[in-house]
Amino acid sequence: MATAASPAPTPSSSSPCPASPAPTSSRVWAIADSKRLGYLGFGEFITAMQLVSLAQAGNEISQDSLQREDLISFNPPVMEGLDAQLAKSKHLAKRVDQDMDGFPQAQGPSTNHWFNSKSSKKIPLTAVTSVIDGLKRLYIEKLKPLEVTYKFNDFVSPLLTNSDFDAKPMVMLLGQYSTGKTTFIKHLLKTSYPGAHIGPEPTTDRFVVVMSGPDERTIPGNTLAVQADMPFSGLTTFGTSFLSKFECSQMPHPLLEHITFVDTPGVLSGEKQRTQRSYEFTGVTSWFAAKCDLILLLFDPHKLDISDEFKRVIGSLRGHDDKIRVVLNKADQIDTQQLMRVYGALMWSLGKVLNTPEVSRVYIGSFNDKPVKESAVGPIGKELFEKEQDDLLSDLKDIPKKACDRRINEFVKRARAAKIHAYIIGHLKNQMPTMMGKAKAQQKLIDNLEGEFAKVQREHHLPAGDFPYVEHFREALGGYSIDRFEKVKPKMIQAVDDMLGYDIPELLKN
Predict the structure, then answer these.
(1) Global confidence as pTM
(2) Quick one: DSSP state of residue 373?
(3) pLDDT tens profile 143-156
(4) Which residues, at least 6 apart from 350, have a Cβ–Cβ distance to it below 8 Å?
(5) Structural domains present in the chain
């Protein structure tokens, strides 16, 4: 159940209220819609009604008001003028039905038909009842045509589907084997999940998505990739060899109703990393990084070396630096003096692979169900671990609240990347001869991609950091004939510019 994106009910003017109706109504909405989705689900609607009851009883309302023990004793909210408003709405609806008699009726609130319909008819702004629905509309109308025209899905990221917008926030755990990734998830859930294996050797040999479900079960990767209500259809590009190492673990759990976890195979080190995996590991981690809201890099005090494969994995997270958090796990296995040295060594190792001038946030602790070994770390170490764990849990709790903002952020990033991609393809197309020597000209362009990127950057005044990896782009471009691409269509570029400059700000304002 979801209510329309309109302010919460205004408290009755005859009831005692500590503030004027409009500010009180805004405060009710802000507290009830804590995830900033732009609409109220069933639970949020109940919260809003409880807050209205409190306001009408003359109480100040805040987030803490919901913790009151006497909340259940308050009378239901009084809605003055509601009957008249409902009668008016029914009258208007009847008139619309009469006017539409003989014409095809509009679809219901479901947005699935936006992705499936071949019709070019645009969805009006009035059909949008949330920020997410608004992003779906903008994607279909303005961004997707640009992506399809210039094959953005083959170069950068698969086309988005309805489930990509509706998916719950995701947290991915990365690290070498036996750094406590699976144990970390079990610690948060306070229980095991289907298919969880823990041991000192590399036990998790596959990507496991832990998400909410009606019962405990595992779903194979090939089945998962073709389910329309799951946001994993894009993983089919990595082939059956990857999908056979991918599965979903479902179970009913209150935490999983808000967050989905992605457990990954341990990154190999030493002699083992020379054994090639049967799929592109860094490509998969890069795909998940784009979808995730938080990426946790786990380290063990005894495994601080960053192997070649781990270095490539961290490199694949480029562009998602704001999502990365570093966790030094199992820190109670060493004493305070050793911990100080280990922390310094970890920061030194990270400084060589994370190409940022800022220092990464490192959480120190022992994230498992066992009590902290106070004999090793002492009382000061135990207090430190507890504070660090609280900070990390606070970071995780904020994820659902920031999910909508993150979705907008990723959408804007994608739109800018698609625009730059179109400029690059259009530029390469313009460099091709009209008649003879096309193969030779294409090879010359591919060999000099760095120079061509620089030309595009100067011509359109674009930031160098937004351009794709040259090697990855070169590899993808090799499978195409540049001559068959479209030239830059100014109308499509302008549509994306209008979306970024006007439509998205207007959507947020509404």
Answers:
(1) 0.71
(2) -
(3) 999 999 988 888 88
(4) 306, 326, 360
(5) 25-57 (no CATH), 130-151+410-508 (1.10.268.20), 163-370 (3.40.50.300)
